[in-house]
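Example S7 (structure tokens).
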């Protein structure tokens, strides 16, 4: 794994963990403190927060469906994140409520296109080279499906609406310029 991936993972894990815990509160009550809710765009929301002096901006959406239904998935969100410092720009990722199996290969799919992700604890990321194609597909597609395996070996699948994704991704990028 490249040094850039390691840095991005550490930074995003701290920032996104807080967002996952607090984000549902902001969707209902945007007047609260950190992270700051910037706007709602159909099924997507935009947030900003400052972590270690760096402004982080992200578009996020919660999973519409989680299978198998009898499993406790916890909060499941898909993000497109940028750092004002440039550590990452338009980085897609998924965050779930459990550890993803190490060495597994989660898959993200929009339409006929799919990408292999790499797990990092409760998150999964694409290779840097795939980020632009994934973001383009998120902007243009109707839904995103992510399939993964939990650390316990449970095969899981999530479906996310992409309604509002283009506007949310644009707003998050604008907030971190």
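Recovered sequence:
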């Amino acid at each position: 794994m490249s040094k850039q991936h390691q840095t991005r993972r550490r930074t995003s894990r701290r920032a996104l963990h807080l967002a996952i815990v607090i984000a549902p509160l902001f969707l209902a009550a945007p007047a609260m403190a950190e992270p700051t809710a910037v706007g709602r765009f159909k099924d997507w929301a935009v947030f900003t927060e400052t972590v270690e002096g760096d402004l982080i901006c992200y578009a996020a959406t919660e999973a519409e469906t989680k299978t198998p239904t009898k499993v406790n998935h916890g909060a499941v969100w898909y993000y497109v994140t940028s750092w004002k410092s440039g550590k990452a720009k338009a980085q897609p990722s998924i965050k779930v409520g459990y550890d993803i199996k190490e060495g597994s290969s989660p898959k993200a799919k929009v339409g006929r296109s799919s990408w292999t992700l790499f797990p990092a604890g409760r998150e999964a990321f694409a290779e840097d080279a795939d980020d632009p194609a994934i973001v383009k597909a998120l902007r243009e597609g109707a839904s995103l499906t992510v399939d993964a395996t939990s650390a316990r070996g449970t095969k899981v699948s999530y479906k996310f609406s992409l309604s509002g994704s283009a506007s949310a991704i644009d707003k998050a990028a604008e907030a971190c310029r």
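Notes on this example. Residues 48 and 57 are 4 Å apart (CA to CA).
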